[in-house]
Every structure is written in C-alpha cells, then in structure tokens.
User: What shape does this take?
Amino acid sequence: MLTSKVAKRYAQGLLDFTNESGQTATVFSEMKDVVKLMNESQDLKKFFLTPYIDSKKKIEVAKEIFKGLSASSQNLITLVIRHGRENQLKNIAQEFINKVEDISGVQRVTVTSATQISKENLDQILRNSNLVNTNANFDLQINVKPEILGGYILRVGDQQIDASVKSKLNSIKKDFHLN
Assistant: This one.
C-alpha cells in the first residue's frame, strides 16, 4: 500500500516525539489499536470522512472514543483532526507502526494465494525464498485472492516474487502477441 507524504510526515513527527519522551512502546501499542478500530468500524470511517461535520464535533467524538489512550496519542489525533487530515488517521497510525518495526528490524512479509494456504506450504515458501530471513522477526500477512488463479505472490518490503498462475498466463499471452 502506498502511503501519503502527509502520513509519513505525521508518523515521523510522532516517532521523533515518542523517542524523546520515551513513550514509543506505549504509543506503538495504541496506534495498533487505532488501526484495528479504523479497520473494523465503517461508521467511524464515514464519520471522519463526512465534510459537513465540523472539526470541533469530530474532536469531541474522538476524545470519547480514544479516551483510554495516552495523552500523546490523544494529542496526535486531535492535531490531525484540527488540521483537517482525519481521513489520513489510519494511514498515519500504520506508518508509525511501520517505522517502529523498521527500527526494531521486523520484516513485513505478505503472501497472497488463490486459496487458503496450509502451514506446511507457507513454511516451505518462506524457507525457499531468499527474501525472507526466517531467523529474524517478521510480521506475516496472508491474503486470499482467487483472481490470481493459483500459485502465490510473496512480498517482502519492496521486493516481490510473483509465482502466480495469472502472471504466468499473462507472460505467455504477451509472448504470443510478440511472435
């Protein structure tokens, strides 16, 4: 997923602040909660995206929803809303998580397959790939997309191995058109 410059800047500012104040671990955990809540609640997303609700009302609601978070996290959310960037709140939180994981040396690994993949096959894919350091920490996300027809797509950071049937068929199709 491409992250906006806005999300990267806010996340970097938050990271700098939490590093100075020693709150990185706390805010990291809270930003995971923010991302989870924003993913699960379509109503909250719609509320934040509604342009005719003024920022004061959005801040009131956000303070109530996020009242269990630390002052640093609440202040970030208030600042984001005050600047009219509430549509980027989830992206800012996710980018902060990514930055902290990068510092900690956590690899983000995504495996996409046409059907649910077994644990044994997943382990084999990860072991046989030279992209994944199985001795290091990694955050694994598994996606099921039937449109790839079969095989898998392995993405580690900004590198990708596409062993899907769809890409192989497209390659064959391209070769036929060239000849």
